[in-house]
UniProtKB/TrEMBL annotation:
InterPro entries (alphabetical): 6-hairpin_glycosidase_sf, 6hp_glycosidase-like_sf, Glyco_hydro_9, Glyco_hydro_9_Asp/Glu_AS, Glyco_hydro_9_His_AS
Protein name (Swiss-Prot/TrEMBL): Endoglucanase
Signal peptide: 1-31
GO-annotated molecular function: cellulase activity
Taxonomic source organism: Gossypium anomalum
Amino acid sequence: MAPKSFSFPGIFPALLASSLALLLLSTPIIAVHDYHDALRKSILFFEGQRSGKLPPDQRVKWRRDSALRDGSTAGVDLTGGYYDAGDNIKFGFPMAFTTTLLAWSIIDFGRNMGPELKNAVKAVKWSTDYLLKATAKPGVVYVQVGDAYSDHSCWERPEDMDTLRTVYKIDNAHPGSDVAGETAAALAAASIVFRSRDPAYSRLLLNRAVRVFNFADMHRGAYSSSLHAAVCPFYCDVNGYQDELLWAAAWLHKASRKRAYREYIIKNEVVLRAGDTINEFGWDNKHAGINVLISKEVLMGRADYFESFKQNADGFICSILPGISHPQVQYSPESMWFSGGLIFKAGGSNMQHVTSLSFLLLAYSNYLSHANKAVPCGERSASPALLKQLAKRQVNYILGDNPLGMSYMVGYGSRFPQRIHHRGSSLPSVAAHPARIGCKAGSRYYLSPNPNPNLLLGAVVGGPNVSDAFPDSRPYFQESEPTTYINAPLVGLLAFFSAHP
């Protein structure tokens, strides 16, 4: 986008010039965004990530059936579910978190989704159908299908997959309270989504959530310890399993309204460290999410016994406000002509932090609005409007209001990533190239400078670095790889802003 030119007759008055400079510095050039289009594409993305037998109404036509024998080596049916990112592994931990956030998006913002609501609900069910299979056997949760090292040594379409489809599970002797807790949270949250749409399915989800939570709580331990060679360093839980137990209990309380879960939360608040790392939220760390979710009840005037969670949620808000943010939270710089200001946290795939934290900002803003409250941050006060503005700024950055003037969502806008780190997108489709493309034969496509032949519409990549630089290149996977857990909270954000542009 070229800078606008300004001309004034005569001599520039000093005051006017300085005021104009301040205005330009403080007011980035903002495009008008089609949030409806972005919402539609962000949900469509999940169809491109589907594993298993594809349904007749599949809209991403370059995909075909894949991994139809998943689970067979263990004598179970583990077909279906989602590939979490640009590879062909089904990791249960991020898949469950994706499901929880998709469900939360529908619970809080489904009324804003219009005709896309039915597709969002389908996206949740595609995952919960799989999670029900993965938890069908009492005392066992199947948490991964595929050997990551074998998979990552190949560049091949999921339809051609010939890498190891090893099945990994947790059980009484090999606990995984983190992945089991997140799975219970996903099933409980989804039960709310289906409560009026399909009561029988909703009851099945909730009953299974209860059973999986009891297993997670009774047999405590981190799945990274039980399955270290399989899950680390890919989705190794460095944060511990305690937060997932509280997170699951919070969703079970919301879904069932049973006193037992309220008492569990109160009893275990300190033991399970609800007040730790309150500015973190993602597939590995649920602390900020726990506090925001539980705070809604306090703000609705129904649960003074949860007041400490609201204090934690307020602390989370203050920790990420620009200008007074926590050292772990940075913002990219702003320039005169373009809007920077992207949330940035150390580690890979930064957009996962942007969308998850922005979702919490928006959700908490709505809860505060209903209660006519604001968040005190020392001498400053964060109003609901300010939190919405900050969340919207992050969404707009993703959609193109950034120094590079590009959208980080594939297929949205006129300029977007062309070489995303994604096997199915970067290799010729089965329709275009029916013959199998072998493990190493795909390497030439991986290394090619050409754009991907298949658009994975709606995919949001890991995004730029803290200096707003972005290499549009497959080997730079931290920047160019999309994930389901980037998109899941973005669905809720886009739904809200499509109704409140």
